[in-house]
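Issue: ligand-bound run for adenosine-5'-triphosphate - logging full I/O for the record.

Environment: standard queue, default settings, no custom constraints.

Inputs:
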Amino acid sequence: MEPLLSVRDLKMHFPVRGGLLLKSIGAVRAVDGVSLDIAPGETVGLVGESGCGKSTLGKAIVRLSNPTSGSIAFNGRDITKLGRHAMRPLRSDLQMIFQDPVESLNARLSVRQIIEEPLVIHSRGNSAWRRQRVDELLERVGLPKSAAERYPFEFSGGQRQRIGIARAIALEPKLIICDEPVSALDVSVQSQVLNLLLELQQEMGLSYLFIAHDLAVVKHISDRVAVMYLGKIVELADADTIYQNPRHAYTRALLSAIPEPDPRLRKKRILLEGDVPSPINPPAGSAFGHRIGHPRYEETIGMDLGLAELEPGHWVAADPCCLTPEDWEKARNSRS
Amino acid sequence: MSDEEPLLEVRDLITAFDTDAGLLRAVDQVSFQVKRGRTLGIVGESGCGKSVTAMSIIRLLPQPMGKVLEGQVMFKGRDLQKATDAEMRQVRGGEIGVIFQEPMTALNPVQRIGKQLSECFLLHTKMSRKEAWEASIEMLRLVRIPAPEQRIGDYPHQLSGGMRQRVDIAMALACKPDLVIADEPTTALDVTVQAQILDLMKQLQKDMGMSVILITHDLGVIAETCDEVVVMYAGRVVERAPVAAIFERPLHAYTRGLLDSMPKLDTPRKSVLPTIPGMVAGLADLVPGCRFCQRMGREGPVLRERPLFEEIHSGHWVETCPNCFEEPA
Ligand SMILES: Nc1ncnc2c1ncn2[C@@H]1O[C@H](COP(=O)(O)OP(=O)(O)OP(=O)(O)O)[C@@H](O)[C@H]1O
Ligand SMILES: Nc1ncnc2c1ncn2[C@@H]1O[C@H](COP(=O)(O)OP(=O)(O)OP(=O)(O)O)[C@@H](O)[C@H]1O
Ligand code: SF4
Ligand SMILES: [Mg+2]
Ligand SMILES: [Mg+2]
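Outputs:
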């Protein structure tokens, strides 16, 4: 199937200033060569260490920022360089919801105005039609009609997230980038919001890029999962596979760090030693190999550490520091 | 109870907000203790009064609406409710470190993080400016901010969400407090950094006998770090027990509901997750009786009379509402 979204070798760098005089001393390579496809109706989960570039990637995809290089194709059309104006018709297909429903909702607007705004911007229907549409949307996300005339601060976190979702689906988008949409919610509300996202997906054939830290949540909602490390995707596979059979050393460390909701099973973690790498002037070779002080690190300088397909649909960075010797062999062969 | 005097004891705390609808109780007779070197977890759904409890302890309730109506907060033998504002300013950040729920409200957006961190040391220790700057870099390193020498010149918006949260943690731990009140400290962190931060806090606990009150909705984090757990619902403590008992023998229907709605790694993918039906009533509509029965749509005398809070097993307390309290077989 034609992918809905196709990202190729995307880079997003920010200048940094440092030292006492705050001179420009390099760049934060927040996203540093990411390629990723999302099929219609598919959910891809995106996980990785804090600061590895997940939000930056999400924002670049919906073109809230201008990528440094690489390309983004949506529905077969290259949108990498589209300006504000040219992007506008596409906004209806491409939405983003954020972790903090408070910060992302304009507190001075009523809930009706917030949900109606995209419909107004895109000149959908007349005011009577929009009125009815907002009522439908509220009902769809499980809020009472009376909510429309109230203001965001009058709602709990979970309710505000529902308002954000109602706004995001108002234009019937094809893809929603969900940046930690349930992180701030307590477990019972979190499960309600996850159920809602899954129902909407079934009804509307939506695709999601779902960014989160809770790996149980990501597994629950995703078809495939991408693991990011320091600006790059290091492993990508079917959700069940990646949890049952992780191949990259970082993915393994990540999975071992999941807090165990059973105090009897407080388990042995693979605690990551070494300095957390910085996206400012990152190591020349394997970033993870450098972090764990792997003996083969030197070899990886100048090496192409791009993804290799180990098994059908299971991609992993071809990096001798992060794979078992057998997998490294396999990865090398599959790439040649 | 125990022979050792607790570091902190909250007794029958009642906190209310002055609103258009009258004086509404957000915290309704909450009691618990924190022993030295121990971690107490507070869980419960959004709006159940966790943050208001924390803010009451350190006296940072929103003014002028928020008021502690009754109860004591005994910290190292003295009642913080009676301390002067100046004394409280020294306690906060000195003896009690606070990690606020919303990192952006704790950090000043127009000040470099290095300046903000240094302030903590300058205010609560005798360090020189230069020493404070060095100590700040060291703190950033401890909370695993990469390249701290460079990051120290950043403004908050230049950091990722998780990094901002770690700066906040660094501020709270900077002066090596006796008690840390951490309100959702790791929600924006990935699991590996979360594990490191929790480890760091454990280390400080071991080295300095620091106590922690950890407010979180992540039951996994509770299971891994807490000694004792307080489960709050609608302003009240419905269950309080050692951590193992909460997970193995939850006695209150609400606690069980929370545990069930958490997705686990072996939950079938994309299946419908269990949820707790209904919604917490607004503060103005809460009944004097069992509030979880109210949510479940039950009626009758259970809604009128407050259930007793009883010790069923040693150290395991629960509201013994006839509908919600159940001993597992
Ligand atoms: N506007 C900006 N200016 C400079 N650096 C930035 C900017 N936005 C992001 N960065 C940097 O880019 C890197 C990636 O940040 P990003 O917010 O994408 O991380 P993340 O993976 O979403 O992390 P988290 O899980 O903590 O939200 C970080 O080092 C961050 O400091
Ligand atoms: N400034 C205020 N004025 C009126 N009511 C308030 C105010 N601040 C909090 N409340 C109310 O007090 C109750 C408890 O709120 P609190 O912030 O303690 O919840 P919480 O348990 O920390 O929730 P969360 O998990 O969402 O952080 C809520 O019903 C809330 O609406
Ligand atoms: S520790 Fe820092 S932020 Fe906290 S009260 Fe002291 S100076 Fe203020
Ligand atoms: Mg982010
Ligand atoms: Mg709170």
